[in-house]
Amino acid sequence: MSIIEGVAARGGAARAPGPRWRLLVLAICCMSLFIVGLDNTIVNIALPSMRRDLHASLSDLQWIIDAYTVVLAGLLMLSGSTADRIGRRRTFQAGLMLFTLGSLLCSLSPSLGWLVGARALQAVGGSMLNPVAMSIITNTFTDPRERARAIGVWGGVVGLSMALGPLIGGVLVASVGWQAIFWINIPMGLIAFVLCALFVPESRAPRPRPVDPVGQILIIALLAGLTYGIIEAPSAGWSSAQTVGCFTGAALALACLVPYELRRAEPLINPRFFRSIPFAGATLIAICGFAALGGFLFLNTLYLQDALGHTALHAGLLTLPMAGLTAVCAPLSGRIVGSAGPRLPLLIAGTAMGLSALMLTDLTAHTPLWRLMASYVLFGLGFGMLNAPITNTAVSGMPRTQAGVAAAVASTSRQIGQSLGVAVVGSLVISAVHGPLRTGLPPASHVGWWIVAACGVAVLLLGILTTGRWAGRTAERTAERLIHGSTETAETA
Question: Which range is least confidently modeled, 7-11, 229-233, 285-289?
Answer without folding.
Answer: 7-11
